Amino acid sequence: MLLSGGAVLGGGGAIGCSDPSAGSSGSASPRCVAPEGVSSSPESISETVALLNALPRPVTLPCFLSALDRPLAIHATRSVISAQPAAGERSPRIFLFLGKNILSVVPDGEGAHLLEFGEQLEGHRSVKAELAFPIVDELTEASPFEHLMFDESVTTCGLCHSAERRDPAYPQPGAFVSQALRPRVSDQISVARLEDELRRCEPRDEPDRCAFLEALLGWGDVVDTYFPEDMDTIFGD
């Protein structure tokens, strides 16, 4: 994994909003901040649930994005081969790298209300989960797995991710482990391109998309990163 960019101040302090320094867009806007003792770099599905439960209700996706520590490593892709497809190059699917916890979001389109999880395990396998926003009620450990079942034996993730099976480390109903897949390198969209999209975004025309981009890029360092080269893709590079 290749990273660049320097460290910046991240979360901490009292729950609510904080005024960050001007970000890559040249603007400054309030962001959500988790209380002390709650990780703003959640490295597992359970830590992500803890962070979401600590943020002010209702929790929006921009609130969650703004609460994540910086520097934040991402990989954006134009790929539409997903249950959470990119909505064109100006609104790519964006993977957030938080240790073994790889999350994905999109600024616009049919998957824009979803946070997708891929908690990485050995052998390029991962446990999959998802949450829909806004989040109004308290989440449980089972909440991220509640809507993934396609039928009694396979999840919606298992339709693309092979060798799906249960793992005793994840006893929640709906929790399955399967092959992890990476997007094609040729489909990558750079952070610089996303920063251009933020500068061009007109809140009067696209309030939700602009709020998403501002929350992601409006403070601190966000840097390009890459999936392991030996992780499979669906169709190859």
Give a structural overview.
- By secondary structure, the protein is of the alpha+beta class.
- It has one domain (16-224).
- 16% of the residues lie in helices and 20% in strands.
- The protein contains four helices and ten strands.
- Strands 3, 4, 5, 6, 7, 8, 9 and 10 form an eight-stranded mixed sheet that branches. Strands 1-2 form a two-stranded antiparallel sheet.
- The longest helix is centred in the last third of the chain and has 11 residues, at 207-217.
- The radius of gyration is 17 Å and the shape is globular.
- The two termini are 18 Å apart.
- The model is unreliable at 1-15 and 17-28 (pLDDT under 50).
Strand content: 15-25%
Uncertain stretches of 5 or more adjacent residues: 1-15, 17-28
Globally, the shape reads globular
Order of helices and strands: EEHHEEEEEEEHHE
Which secondary-structure class do the elements indicate? alpha+beta
What is the residue-averaged pLDDT?
Answer: 83
Task: Please give the domain count.
Answer: 1
Give the terminus-to-terminus CA distance.
18 Å
Q: Percent of residues in helical segments?
A: 10-25%
The biggest beta sheet is recorded as: 8 strands, mixed
How would you summarize this macromolecular structure in one to three sentences?
This protein is α+β, with helices and mostly antiparallel strands.
List key phrases describing it.
8-stranded mixed β-sheet
